[in-house]
C-alpha cells in the first residue's frame, strides 16, 4: 500500500537511511534488486504480482543475493507464515503494527550497525 510505503520511507529517512528505493509490487522489487543490488530488503508479505514470500524465494535462489539481509514486514502473525518465511531464509520478521524504534533496532541488527546512542 502506498501509504505504508511512504510511512516506512519517512521513518527510514529520519533514521538516517537516505538511499531508499520503493517498489510497488514484488516483480518491480525483483527487477530493482537485479539492476541495483541493495544492502537490505524490507518487504511486505502481501504484495501484488509477486508475494513477499515469492520474492524471498526468488532472491534466495540467486547466489549473488543469497545472503542479502531480507526483513519481512507483515500484518499476518500466523505461525505458518512465520515458519514459512524462516524456512525460506528470511533474516528477520516484523509484525505490524510496529514502532519506529523497533524498525530501527531490527535494521541495525541485521546490518550489524551499532545502536543509536540514547541521549
Low-confidence stretches: none
Q: How many strand units?
A: 3
How many distinct helices? 5
- The CATH architecture classification is 3-Layer(aba) Sandwich
Using only C-alpha atoms, the radius of gyration works out to 14 Å
The CATH topology is what? Rossmann fold
Approximate strand percentage: 5-15%
- Please bin the fraction of helical residues: 40-55%
Going across the biggest sheet, name each strand in turn: 1-2-3
End-to-end separation in angstroms reads 34 Å
Overall pLDDT metric: 90
Task: Give the CA-based shape.
Answer: globular
The SS-based structural class is mainly alpha
String of helices and strands: HHEHEHEH
Largest sheet: 3 strands, parallel
Query: Going by CATH, what is the homologous superfamily?
Result: Response regulator
Top-tier CATH class: Alpha Beta
Q: How many domains make up the 3D coordinates?
A: 1
Amino acid at each position: 500500500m502506498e501509504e505504508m510505503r511512504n510511512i516506512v520511507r519517512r521513518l527510514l529517512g529520519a533514521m538516517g537511511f537516505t538511499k531508499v528505493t520503493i517498489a510497488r509490487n514484488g516483480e518491480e522489487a525483483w527487477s530493482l534488486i537485479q539492476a541495483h543490488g541493495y544492502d537490505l530488503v524490507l518487504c511486505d508479505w502481501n504484495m501484488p504480482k509477486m508475494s513477499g514470500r515469492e520474492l524471498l524465494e526468488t532472491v534466495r535462489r540467486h547466489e549473488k543475493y543469497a545472503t542479502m539481509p531480507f526483513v519481512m514486514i507483515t500484518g499476518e502473525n500466523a505461525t505458518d507464515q512465520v515458519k514459512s518465511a524462516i524456512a525460506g531464509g528470511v533474516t528477520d520478521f516484523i509484525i505490524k503494527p510496529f514502532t519506529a524504534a523497533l524498525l530501527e533496532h531490527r535494521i541495525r541488527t541485521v546490518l550489524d550497525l551499532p545502536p543509536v546512542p540514547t541521549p
